[in-house]
Amino acid sequence: MTDSIAIGGYTVTAFSDGRLKTTIEGAGANDNAVICAFTGSENPEPVIFAVNTFLIEGRGVRALVDTGCGNTRGSSLGKLTANLMAAGKPLDSITHVLLTHFHPDHSNGLIDGAGTAFFPNAELIAHETEAQFWLDSEPSQSPNARIERNRQAAQEVCAPYRKRMHRVKDGEALPGILARLSPGHTPGHTCWIVEGNGDSLMIWGDTIHLTRLQLAHPEIGFNVDVDPAMGAASRMRLLDQVSADQTRVAGMHLEFPGYAHILKRGSNYALAEA
Ligand SMILES: [Zn+2]
What we know:
With 274 residues, this protein is an alpha/beta fold. It has one domain (4-273): Ribonuclease Z/Hydroxyacylglutathione hydrolase-like (Metallo-beta-lactamase, Chain A), CATH 3.60.15. It contains seven helices and 14 strands. The protein has helices spanning 32-39, 80-86, 104-107, 128-135, 145-158, 211-216, 228-245; strands spanning 4-7, 10-23, 46-58, 61-65, 96-98, 123-127, 165-168, 171-174, 177-181, 190-196, 199-203, 248-250, 259-265, 268-273. A seven-stranded mixed sheet has the order 1-2-3-4-5-6-7. α2 links the parallel β4 and β5. It is globular, with a radius of gyration of 18 Å. The site of zinc ion has 6 residues, from α3.
């Protein structure tokens, strides 16, 4: 499995931000049988999953999809900027940042600890539905404290990008790079599709958090899903689509480098190396 793949006129490269530790309870899987099937244990272990980002290069752009956690989630995360620089991709050479959604492990890495943009020359692109939910609402409209915390964080990380931020609808945002709404995990959660020469890659953000569990039980959400039922419907729709047409996917929380093909097996799904 390689870190880079060619799609149309682009090269897409996975960059790790690190690894995030959570618990199976965090999956919202409160059915013991399901938990045990996943962990092989009656005492679910902490779960650790990858935090990936993807760099799309070619056709005059160097576009980063998501930014990881920045310095907000401890030393096992926030490694993206060092990894980019080590690969010869200076931060001021990034032309665009495309966000799948405004959650801390995807957008906090827009700024450093002083609130300065990590990517001083990048245009920031987000789906209009996602931007509206996190950036435009008053605190009194937040359904709960977590969402309010994340709203404040989203507004803070976007502040230095305000004059170069673009809200897009479904469809082409950059040549051969398309936004597609897949709501539920967040109201405007967005897949970014890279296509060209009859080939395509779907960078599907947080469609899957816990690979084994959610491929076997795609109806199970994650505790930070804003609308778990809508998220499950989006997940099942995308799994059906990419398994039927054999679209390669790239996931922020699939094991690094995060590329996969999805196979359908009865009512379940399985992962095949891409
Ligand atoms: Zn995430």
